[in-house]
Design a protein that fits this description.
Elements: H1 8-17, H2 19-25, H3 29-58
């Protein structure tokens, strides 16, 4: 199994490159992303970094 955490910059790229697919799956996501990111991204980015660091320590 492979899993990764997507930081804010990666999600912004996904939103740009796959906008039609994102909107089809989650209508309104593109328009709401600024608010969602402002509210959740700092904690999500920190959690993702902690997970990545913990994983690499296992290797």
């Amino acid at each position: 199994q492979f899993h990764f955490e997507a930081n804010r910059a990666v999600v912004e790229t996904f939103n740009r490159d796959f906008a039609d697919a994102v909107e089809a799956r989650h209508p309104g996501w593109i328009a709401d992303f600024g608010q969602i990111a402002a509210r959740n991204a700092p904690a999500a980015d920190a959690a993702g970094l902690a997970i990545a660091r913990a994983w690499t320590r296992l290797l």
